Amino acid sequence: MRVSLNWLKDYVDLTRPAGEIAHLLTMAGVEVAQVNEIGANWAHIYVGRISKLERHPNADRLLLATVDYGREPVIVVTGAPNLAVGVHVPLALAGAVLVDPYSDQPHKMTLKPTKLRGILSEGMVCSAKELGLGDDHEGILILDPDSEIGRDLRDELGDTIFVLEVTPNRGDCLSMLGVAYEIAAHLDSKAQAPAVEWAGVGRPASELVSIEIADPDLCYRYCGTVIRGVKVGPSPRWLRKRLTAAGLRPINSVVDVTNYVMWELGQPLHAFDFDTLRGGKIVVRRANAGERMVTIDHEERELDSDTLVIADNERPVALAGVMGGVDTEVSESTVNVLIESATFNQTSIRKTVRKQKLPSEASRRFEKGLPLELARIAVDRATRLMVEVAGGQAAPGVVDVCPEPPKPHVIDFPVSEVRRLLGVELSKETIVSNLRRLSVGVEDRGDILTLKPPYWRRDIRHKADVCEEIARIIGYDRLPTRLLSGSIPEPQPNQFWQNSRLLRELLVGLGINEIVTYPLVSNARQSRVPQGTVLQLKDDVNEFDERFNPSVEPLKLLNPLSADADSLRVNTICQLLETLRDNLRYRDRDLDLFEIGRIYLPQDGKLPDERNVLSVVLYKNRSGRRWGQVEAQDFYDGKAVASAIAGRFGVVVSYDRLEHPLFLAGRSASVRDPNTGELLGAVGEIHPDVLGGFDINESAVLVVFDLDRLFQRAADRRRYRQLPRYPAIRQDLAVFVAQSTPAAQVEQVIREVGQPLLESVELFDVYQGERIGGHSWEGRSLAYHLTYRLADRTLTDEEVAGKHGEIIKTLEGRLQAQLRA
């Protein structure tokens, strides 16, 4: 919101410096993002008039301009293409400080008389860029023809513009008058509202136009009046200057008045060419399905039943609160005008803006909600100004349709509430005084005050709002501070957060990069990941839950920001693979990613089942053990990551065969609790068809964990011990086992029997083929490194040989394994 200091002075007496006013507003919660002081550094710059133009005798592209500025005329050498005799221009004389238009960096230059091709140039006619008013340097800035010749340019164009960052609850500050009320309250002065009275002539408005609100749930009030005999043309200079200061483009005397009142009071208005309205009737209704209209930007719009329109007796003529139609647009031939001022449902306007992609200053105000009272005030103000600016005669009265007339909002406010919420002691007199500065009506009923906020402060609705206003008027920086009494409560550790931090440290230490994605996706994006995506399981059985198949829609948003983010995700794998695909444009190896995020699983008639999950993807290759070497990543790399995660939290897991369309057959496993069989996660090589859906052409390994289930079992079982003092003895063991015998079961038997001498077991080779060791074998060969060691003495060969033989016999007896020669 651009606020002109010169304009503000129409409503409130301001003598303080602009910087002090900006600080006051910011400290009160209305942030002033920028203060632009136009013309603060101008000196020796005046309003001039071109009285004569001649060709330069020594240069074809230069002109000699004689400029009159109320004193002795001066001759200026210029090459500007847009000059003509009679136009008013900024004239800078010797000593003026201007912006150098040819410098890439902001650079100031001091003007001096200069000879150009033998002719002395006594000054300069200035472009907008040279004055610091913009980037335009194509031609000279042409001033208003009504500007006074010889006037100091600071008085003509100088102003201070405050750029406000208005929060959604302070819609009143989207108007000059609202900002004036705010400043007056903090300065303990009064703001003067503009005059709205006007006199009507001829037939009353109610005989000229009828207004009907067909959908009162979307339009709460609609006011209209007719002005006959207007003259559409340029607005007067003062009006054009005000609109330009606000950042608006002047159009014509009728449209400029509606824009002026919108900026002044915060109420958008619209002017119809009254003679183009069919039947002399206005109907505020929902559009019919398939109905079309052409808006004033000459775009044809298709409407639906959710769009509120302003219609005449036959067709829609405007998108309510958004944009008017070209058929009823005010033009130079317009003679009679209907002024509209209405209060619409803010949600309806927001939906129309988003659907039609038509944001505007008017819709911005409607979306924040407007008070019912403002519609009538604004139409009266616009009528008064339009008769003054565009001429014509206003019909007596206003057609005002309001199904539910506005009622003042009343708050019963206990005086003790200030101490309870603000923690400060204030007298009742101080409270009442501060509230009246805000134009709040106050009725004193002892310990309780009956308050009536002004109509423009729709944000004051509750006791806490009242306390906030009192604190703002006093000044947040002036509220007394005091130390907390008593002891500070002990911090309550968040175990999930702490475990997540440890998990991040582990994964980053493994060389995996963390990503963070939005929980909003589209069903089309998620459908590229096969159904039942590993973690979407029933809690009591180890089956994939059929409710999470593609035919079941995820939770949809009622008001999505985009079609690609219209529902809550049911897995994080989709976004993980999308991020992998996008990063592959820049890097094709050692690209490992993980995300700790939340998924939302729909439940019939209930809130979604929210689960915290971990997803890790390992892409294609990793750096090998030698410089420059590359090694392919496969299932076992993923299993190593899964084991590291489980081991970090002291969780014992088992790996079982897993068949799922997300993974390649035979290269995936579920990660389970060996005691209960509950699924904790999964690991596997992603199926090429799935990767192809994300335009990924190489292999990738996926690791997923349900963190809620994993952290429930977390226990810090790490025990620190000194480094071993005695040597180890390593023995290799290779056995044949059946194809159905898991390697984890073989390792479990080895560890169980090898105690207490066995220190570690490492599987280093798996071979499967038609012939092993010279004879046929339908199973596979597993080879292990076994490390034996005791902490208190050196083992003997006899002890190790005895334990090694015991392990072999147990494997043969329990698992029907055969020792490989």
What does this molecule look like?
By secondary structure, this protein is of the alpha+beta class. Helices cover 26% and strands 28% of the residues. The chain is built from 21 helices and 44 strands. The strands form 13 sheets. A seven-stranded mixed sheet has the order 28-31-32-38-37-36-35. The protein has a five-stranded antiparallel sheet with strand order 5-4-3-6-11. Helix 20 (743-754) packs across helix 21. The radius of gyration is 40 Å and the shape is elongated. The termini are far apart. Residues 533-551 have low confidence and may be disordered.
Topology at a glance:
Layout: E1 2-4, H1 5-8, H2 18-27, E2 31-38, E3 45-55, E4 63-68, E5 74-78, E6 88-93, E7 97-99, E8 108-110, E9 114-116, E10 119-121, E11 123-125, H3 153-157, E12 159-165, H4 176-187, H5 205-208, E13 210-213, E14 219-228, H6 237-245, H7 253-265, E15 269-273, E16 281-286, E17 292-294, E18 300-302, E19 308-311, E20 316-319, E21 323-324, E22 337-344, H8 346-356, H9 361-368, H10 372-390, E23 393-394, E24 399-401, E25 411-414, H11 416-422, H12 428-437, E26 441-445, E27 448-452, H13 463-474, H14 495-509, E28 513-514, E29 520-521, H15 523-526, E30 567-568, H16 573-583, E31 592-603, E32 606-619, E33 621-623, E34 630-632, H17 635-648, E35 654-657, E36 663-672, E37 679-686, H18 688-692, E38 700-706, H19 707-712, E39 729-737, H20 743-754, E40 758-767, E41 771-772, E42 775-776, E43 780-788, H21 797-815, E44 818-819
Helix pairs in contact: 6-7, 7-10, 8-9, 11-13, 12-13, 14-17, 20-21
